[in-house]
């Protein structure tokens, strides 16, 4: 009986060890430009999001909404050709005010992650 329990515990630990790299394999936002919560003297020309892994462009988006929730972007986000972990969106001229960046990406594992953050233009 004790040998069976030891075998089951060992198998469970081995399974957990093998699965753990996959559990953290989702794309995670490492940084953004502008940064979350930033107050900018001038409007940014683009939004740049940097992730911990390659992003699948076909399944990834960035949108920007003004303080009233109206979307102000018309273009599509593009993966940076020199670094596939960076997603960029050209930004139209923005007036002074608060903006919300909403993003959704799919990493190489196919799982979608989403998030948002705000920044302000003086």
From TrEMBL:
Residues 1-25 form the signal peptide. Residues 26-121 form the CopC domain. Keywords: Copper, Metal-binding, Signal. It is found in: Cell envelope. SUPFAM superfamilies: E set domains. GO terms for biological process: copper ion transport; response to copper ion. GO terms for molecular function: copper ion binding. It holds the Pfam family CopC. One of its GO terms (cellular component) is plasma membrane. This is CopC domain-containing protein. It comes from Duganella sacchari.
């Amino acid at each position: 009986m004790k040998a069976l329990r030891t075998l089951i515990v060992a198998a469970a630990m081995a399974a957990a060890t093998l699965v753990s790299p996959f559990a953290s394999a989702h794309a995670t936002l490492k940084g953004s430009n502008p940064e979350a919560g930033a107050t900018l003297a001038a409007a940014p020309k683009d939004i740049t999001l940097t992730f911990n892994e390659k992003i699948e462009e076909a399944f990834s988006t960035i949108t920007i909404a003004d303080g009233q929730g109206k979307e102000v972007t018309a273009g599509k986000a593009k993966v940076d050709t020199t670094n596939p972990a960076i997603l960029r969106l050209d930004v139209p001229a923005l007036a002074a005010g608060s903006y919300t960046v909403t993003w959704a990406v799919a990493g190489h594992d196919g799982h979608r992650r989403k998030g948002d953050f705000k920044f302000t233009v003086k």
